[in-house]
Design goal:
The protein has a four-stranded parallel β-sheet, sandwiched between helices. The chain has a four-stranded parallel β-sheet with strand order 6-5-7-8, sandwiched between helices. It has 312 residues and is of the alpha/beta class. α2 links the parallel β1 and β2. α3 runs parallel beside α4 and α4 packs across α14. The mean pLDDT is 97. The chain has three domains: 109 residues, NadA-like (Rossmann fold, 3-Layer(aba) Sandwich); 98 residues, Rossmann fold (3-Layer(aba) Sandwich), CATH 3.40.50; 79 residues, Rossmann fold, CATH 3.40.50. Bound molecules: (~{Z})-2-methylbut-2-enedioic acid (CIZ) and iron/sulfur cluster. The site of iron/sulfur cluster has 14 residues, from loops.
């Protein structure tokens, strides 16, 4: 029964992939997929990456349509950076709870309390929040961005864990918002200890969205892109991975002979997993749901994103 179900699924996916190839040609579309997407989406993507690489790609593509497979704020960032393109997403319910933890009113109040601070926003924020900030960053460039601003004080939104990590390496005074990623924040010292016991030869590679005490256990700390690069280049053959489980796709692709154990079975972002191959095909068929960002919001937010893309 199990084998039959798998066969049926494989056949369904084959038909979907054929339809997708046809639609992509008709619409001159490009499919961008975040490393946290399901394997069936990463397999058909024209480009896979973290939010920084995907933002860069959206800004430079000559496709007419961008199908953005990730969560809502990423689709918005693509639209802001490529305003003349049509940006569609597989399912508008794919949001990011961390991005929803900060709103414009709260941020404005904090800015009034710290009038000399520059505002650095993790890209995991809504377009409205970005429009209230000086510069965006991702986990791949957070420290560089914080160090690049011309003020001694930085308001940091929304991830307290990444903020805490960055604050250890900068001389800037950081005023840190209390947001966090429900998925990464779930990982505990106990989970990692247990995995280390089971895999004593493995190194622990961890994303800075995890809790500080878990990050402190890392043999390597970095963004998904940095983790993927580190695991590929390291002589070590076995890793315990402290980031969302979709990253396994690119880790295994780059390092097929190495072993990757995810630090807990709970490192699965339910929002990222709302998307599937069927929805990608449907979105391109119907050209819906489409991302819209009001012009006045997009203009302000674009400055913040473009400043990030210029940081070397
Ligand atoms: O920046 C991103 O894409 C996220 C959410 C994680 C990472 O480190 O790549
Ligand atoms: Fe948001 Fe965390 Fe999911 Fe990333 S993994 S989209 S930060 S909830």
């Amino acid at each position: 029964m199990e084998a039959l179900a798998l066969q049926h699924k494989a056949e369904q996916n084959r038909v979907l992939r054929e339809r997708l190839a046809q639609l992509k040609k008709e619409r001159n579309a490009i499919i961008l997929a975040h490393y946290y997407q399901r394997d069936e989406i990463q397999e058909i993507a024209d480009f896979r990456g973290d939010s920084f690489l995907l933002a860069q790609k959206a800004a430079s593509t000559d496709a007419d349509v961008i199908v953005f497979c990730g969560v809502h704020f990423m689709g918005e960032s693509a639209k802001i950076l490529a305003p003349t393109k049509t940006v569609i997403i597989p399912d508008e319910r794919a949001g990011c709870p961390m991005a929803d933890m900060v709103n414009v009113e709260g941020l404005r109040a904090l800015k009034r309390q710290h009038p000399n601070a520059k505002v650095v926003a993790y890209i995991n924020t809504s377009a409205e929040v970005k429009s209230e900030t000086d510069i965006c960053c991702t986990s791949a460039n957070a420290l560089k961005v914080v160090n690049s601003v011309d003020s001694d004080e930085v308001i940091w939104v929304p991830d307290k864990n990444l903020g805490d990590y960055v604050s250890k390496f900068t001389n800037k005074k950081m005023i840190i918002w209390e947001g966090y990623c429900n998925t990464h924040d779930m990982l505990t010292i106990k989970d990692v200890e247990e995995m280390k016991r089971l895999h004593p030869n493995a190194q622990f590679v961890v994303h800075p969205e995890c809790r500080p005490e878990v990050v402190a256990m890392g043999d390597f700390v970095g963004s998904t892109t940095a983790i993927i690069k580190y695991c590929k280049e390291s002589p070590c053959q076995e890793f315990i991975v402290g980031t969302e489980d979709g990253t396994g796709y690119q880790l295994r692709l780059n390092s097929p002979d190495k072993q990757f154990h995810f630090a807990t079975k709970y490192l699965v972002c339910p929002n990222m997993k709302v998307n599937n191959l069927k929805k990608v095909v449907k979105a391109l068929e119907t050209m819906k749901p489409e991302i819209y960002v009001p012009d006045h919001v997009a203009e302000q937010a674009r400055q913040s994103l473009e400043r990030m893309l210029l940081v070397k």
